[in-house]
Amino acid sequence: MNNLVIMPIIIPLLAGLILILFSKNIGFQRFFSASAILASGYVAVILLQQIKGKGIQVLQAGGWEAPFGISIVADMFSALLLLSASIVAFFCLMYAFKSIGRERENHYFYPFYLFLITGVNGSFLTGDLFNLFVCFEVMLISSYVLLSLGGTRIQLRESIKYVLINVLSSSLFLIAVAYLYAMLGTLNFAHLSLRVADAGQDGLLTTVALLFLIVFGMKAALFLFFWLPGSYSAPPTAIAAIFAALLTKVGIYALFRTFTLVFYHEPQITHFIIGILGALTMILGAIGAIAYWEIKKILTYNVIVGVGFIMAGLASSTHYGMMGSIYYLIHDILIKALIILLGGTIIYIMGTSKLKEISGLIRNHPFLGWMFFIAALSLAGIPPLSGFLGKVFITRGTFESEYYWLGGIGLFTSLMVLYSIMKIFMNVFWGETNVSKEMEKGTAKGLVLPIAGLTGLTITLGIGAEGIAESVRIAADGLLNPSLYIEAVIGESQFGSK
Amino acid sequence: MIPNDVILRSVTKAAIVIIFTFSIYLFFGGHHNPGGGFIGGLSVASGLVLLYLSFDIETVSKNIPVDFKKVAAFGVLLALLTGMSSLFVGKPFLNQTFGYFELPIFGKTELATAVLFDVGVALAVIGTAVTIILSISEDG
Q1: Hey, which residues 96-135 in chain B have their CB within 8 Å of chain A?
Q2: What is the spatial distance between Cα A370 and Cα A342, in angstroms, rounded to a whole number?
Q3: How many Å is the Cα radius of gyration of chain A?
Q4: A458: which residues sit within 8 A by CB, 6+ positions away?
Q5: Cβ atoms of A4 and A58 closer than 8 Å
Q6: Predicted local confidence at residue A496, as pLDDT
Q7: How far apart are CA A358 and CA A335, in angstroms?
Q8: How many CA atoms lie within 13 A of A321 on its CB side?
Q9: Cα angle: A285, vertex A288, A293; to 5 degrees
């Protein structure tokens, strides 16, 4: 029992509720929401230390033993994701302070932002399939509100699509849970894993596994990403950045959890299909990224490419593949927030998203320009930066498991990603300066600070990758040995260490 | 604007007492019989909607001067704090306790902290339902 495990869920929830009660005082709202996110990040750091020292941390909510109550489980994988989610949430919040506008702040922006973080943290920590569904809904309902908050025409149009697609996938999730419960009679991840191992993963269970693949794939924009480019380009920049950084990652996390802990017995079917879907996602996303001449579209298609790439690591299900996926997942959370914030800042300064109308921005904004350059290189995976190590490990993993085509497609799409993002850089920042400083639509003052913070992090994560290597190795071990997780959750209650 | 609706108003005045009593009955019966925080809160909300229908919004909000958005937030806060209270005595989150007490009128009564959680649920349901009704009824 360790009550600290639930803290990353409670802290933002409590803070959000208090902020609804004191909705008039904007200064208090800003300060309080930032400190709540910092506090949950701090808890994630402590959890990381504890997991390193004492193994997976478990809390049985209400004191009910494992298969009967709800288990809240923090293993290394979820702790790393919690930490990176908190860091990104903090920087996006800082960006929101300057950019989101008084109108939205008065209409409960900060509470809903905190509820979104609650849902994300809850999804990372839960050890129970139905509780995962509930945390998904907490996250999704907050994201519906954040997407439509402000009520501009394009936001309303895109939120209708977004809500419809998510209601559909949530009901599919519920149906999949119902099938699984009817077959196995339990919903606890660890217990499910035991029961699946006992029963042997037959055709029916594999079918349910594929249903989960569709559900989480829809959330994670794995192949079923048709909803993503529209809905992620509608909301204000700070919100789009937090969406791109966290929402698809929660779907990816759920895929990793289910396909490493529960349905890992038929990898030649399930993991092979994941590999195919990952490859298709990479190719289609990369085609989208190079096809458009609009900053928002290019960046949102880059979000999709990243998802496909992380899935390649899961498909390989080797130690290197898993380590690569974890590195890349952490990197991807940071870099997608960074690149969307950068793109949003450019659009804010120039008042347009069309590449052909912008040129020569580097003369007036050299700092912004070079940070965009660093972010672009990091996104493509150039060695000293954070995207490199993940790509190397994932490629090695796919080659080891003899999915050469998958690794090849991953490398090829990296080139296309580099091309698409350099297209933005060269068009926007180089060339003749067509807009003088006075003619700009907005100022980047104050917006650069969170961007600089994230850029610093992507450099640090690239150069100091050794620093988290131990944690990533433990996380990958945990993913490949489900017995560690099961022992931590079920074992504790059986031997009664109250 | 509203025509002469003396019958509606008189019936409402009698019915509302019955509805609220029944809600309280449902709420407290939740541990041993069908009922509980959700349905109890929902029937209170339906009683309030009946009040809004038969009188106008200004009259009702003058007599029940609460912001229902805050009621909802306060309800969830109460439920969360009930869950958190077990943290201070070193028990897992959401742990609950109960005991038997001699109360003046009721005699020996079982009191459980789960009821406080249910109060939170009920307030959240009332707050949410009434907020929805009030905000869609507002003019532009």
Answers
A1: 96
A2: 11
A3: 22
A4: A331, A334, A335, A338, A374, A375, A378, A385, A386, A387
A5: no
A6: 42
A7: 23
A8: 27
A9: 145
- Complex ipTM: 0.91
Q: From A2, which residue of chain B is nearest by alpha-carbon distance?
A: B92
- For residues A198 and A189, is the Cβ–Cβ distance under 8 A? no
DSSP for residue A57: E
Pairwise CB contact (< 8 Å): B84 & A59: no
Strand residue runs (E) in A298-426: none
**Partner residues linked to A160 by β-bridges:** none
Q: Residue A221: which of A261, A162, A267 has the closest Cα?
A: A162
CA angle A137–A142–A144, rounded 5-degree value: 95
Once rounded to an integer, what is the mean pLDDT over residues A50-67?
88
Residue among A328, A196, A171, A329 nearest A258 (CA): A196
Q: What is the sign of the dihedral through the CA atoms of A333, A334, A336 and A341?
A: positive
In angstroms, rounded to a whole number, what is the distance separating the alpha carbons of residues A286 and A409? 10
Q: Which residues of A touch B80 (CB under 8 A)?
A: 10, 13-14, 17
Residue pair B91/A63 in contact (Cβ under 8 Å)? The answer is yes
Which residue's structure tokens are 């300064």?
Answer: A349
Which stretch of A123-127, B48-52, B111-115 has the lowest confidence by average pLDDT? B111-115
Task: Collect all residues with Cβ–Cβ distance below 8 Å to A442 and sequence separation of at least 6.
Answer: A348, A349, A351
- Structure-block tokens of residue A124: 């990372």
Is residue A350 exposed (0-12), middle (13-18) or buried (19+ Cβ within 10 Å)? buried
Residues of chain A that touch chain B, judged by Cβ-Cβ distance less than 8 Å: 1, 3, 6, 10, 13-14, 17-18, 20-21, 59-63, 72
pLDDT band at A67 (very low <50, low <70, confident <90, very high): confident
| A314: nearest Cα among A367, A258, A354 | A258
Among candidates A117, A134, A106, which has minimal Cα distance to A30? A106
Looking at beta carbons, which residues of chain B come within 8 Å of A61?
A: 92-94
Task: For residue B99, give the 3-state DSSP assignment.
Answer: strand
Q: How confident is the model at residue B85 (pLDDT cuts 50, 70, 90)?
A: confident
Q: Output b/e per residue, A332-346; b: 16+ Cβ within 10 A.
A: bbbbbbbbbbbbbbb
Structure letter (DSSP) for residue B91: P
The structure tokens listed for B127 are 């707050």
Instruction: Report how far residue A103's alpha carbon sits from residue A83's, in angstroms, rounded to the nearest whole number.
Output: 31
Q: Model-level pTM?
A: 0.94
DSSP state of A264: -
Identify the band that residue B89 occupies on the pLDDT scale cut at 50, 70 and 90. Answer: confident
CB atoms within 10 A of CB A146: 24
